[in-house]
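pasting for the record
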Amino acid sequence: MNPPVTNEDLMRYLDDELSDEDRLRVEAALRDSTELRRDVAVFRSMRRDLSELSAGGTPRSSVWGSVNRRLTRPVGWILLVAGFVLWAGYGAWVFATSPANLVEKLAVGALAVGFLILLLATIFERLTEWKDDPYRDVER
């Protein structure tokens, strides 16, 4: 007696991955079973639908997407950078005019400069990796 035909057998049948003996066994089972023929039709439909999908996809076009790309993001970045520059300037002014000891100022300044160097090095590294990333345009 032949072993029962599984879903894996049906998918391998559709992909032409079965040996001649297994292919004949699956074809014989398909002639005898309407349920297996229905499963093969479902798998063919799924295979066709999946093959129509592309990795990049079509960009979603909407009014909000256009507004977001052209106005909201640039304004947000401008405000973020301007706020950072203002706070950094104010902090530097307060730091420079504070009555703290010179050694304390140098220690805090060294920590701040070290942190900024590490942050900028990490950002630079991420940007260079992003440019070479083959999957950067894949939508998640």
